[in-house]
Design a protein that fits this description.
Length: about 210
């Protein structure tokens, strides 16, 4: 609960503990999550299960946790049991991008259709089989530019960043998924961050001790 646990008001921080903080049961080894504020939905990647859990936050947030422990989130089964790791959601195209790929194996990104797999409408969660597109090895981070719909992937074991055209490579339009360009960066890129004000993507390179 960040209402009284933030800069300027930390009065509610100490009172929150692991025992008192609300939780939602998901799959095994949850690795990452993405929030869709437009639909009050949180998507959680379950690495060991090869699934994504779909949490309804309508009554599971700071100030109202009545729907946290009682819900059993539906899961999306991904085609490749090779992750998933990172996830990002684009409400404009109704797509969640979930990265897959263990070290030194071919990577991929699953294109999850969120139009009927979100809070209030989970009718297509368990029945869909998301399309996947190949990527270089180890796509471990993903960011979406909301202005251009471009999707940036940090490929940890390829020293590169892939750039997906999210306007035409999404859950309902895969016409430009066939050839994904990539940018060479430093060794072992582990994350990706986007600054819209300067149209810049920043990538930390673990083994080089620098950032691209």
């Amino acid at each position: 609960d960040g209402r009284h646990c933030r800069a300027g008001d930390t009065s509610g921080c100490a009172g929150q503990t692991a025992a008192t903080t609300a939780t939602v049961a998901v799959g095994h080894n949850p690795g990452d999550l993405a929030i869709d504020p437009a639909t009050s939905t949180v998507y959680v990647t379950n690495i060991t299960d090869g699934t994504v859990s779909v949490i309804d936050t309508t009554h599971c947030h700071a100030g109202d946790t009545s729907g946290c422990s009682s819900q059993s989130p539906p899961t999306i089964i991904l085609p490749n049991a090779n992750g998933p790791f990172a996830i990002a959601v684009d409400d404009a195209t109704g797509t969640a991008y979930a990265t897959e790929g263990f070290p030194f194996t071919s990577g991929s990104v699953a294109l999850i259709d969120t139009r009927h797999c979100r809070a209030g409408d989970t009718s297509r969660c368990t029945t869909q089989s998301p399309a996947t597109i190949p990527t270089p090895p180890g796509p471990t981070a993903v960011q979406i530019d909301p202005a251009t719909r471009d999707v940036y992937l940090a490929n940890q074991y390829d020293s590169s960043v892939s750039v997906i055209d999210g306007l035409h490579c999404n859950a309902t339009d895969t016409s430009r998924c066939g050839s994904i360009p990539k940018i060479e960066v430093g060794s072992n890129p582990s994350d990706v961050a986007l600054d819209q004000n300067s149209d810049t993507v920043y990538v930390p390179n673990v083994y080089d001790n620098d950032a691209s």
